[in-house]
């Protein structure tokens, strides 16, 4: 599972599922570095979220293996009530009564798609593509929260977490490694672009 690269977003909008948010110049470079990192793997398919930033990140990876970029809507960014707004998580939100209903339950979370639903669709997608190409690698290009939620589900950790502690850098690679019998052996993680690209607090990830 690859997180997309940095997005051109000078207005700091929480873009969520909004269309047309593309990679920045740095994001394009990050995608190419990750493509180089994955170039020696036996990749059978490159599959991406339908959102532009994921498609652009997938493109050089697919090109390196002479594959098309396939689309799976289950890899899309999570739903979010604050989509399209400039947004900063801070205690000031709690002083606005209009936000109380939205922020009532951080375990769900009440402001967006439940973690359980994110994990379910991501793991179903991963299993389907794994089973379609046994013994080979499949690259799924998605977004920070879906990738991180899938990783926590695979590791049987609670899905509720602190966003500032996600280990899911821009254009990073989170790998589920399975045995021939489809038993999960381990989860690996790599940052081809280095830890400075973490972007854990970036909006719309």
From TrEMBL:
InterPro entries, per the entry: His_Pase_superF_clade-1, His_PPase_superfam, PGM_Phosphatase
CDD domains: HP_PGM_like (cd07067)
MF-aspect GO terms: phosphatase activity
GO cellular component: cytoplasm
SUPFAM superfamilies found in the cross-reference section: Phosphoglycerate mutase-like
UniProt cross-references to PANTHER family, sorted A to Z: BROAD-SPECIFICITY PHOSPHATASE YOR283W-RELATED, PHOSPHOGLYCERATE MUTASE
Name assigned to this protein: Histidine phosphatase family protein
Gene source species: Frankia nepalensis
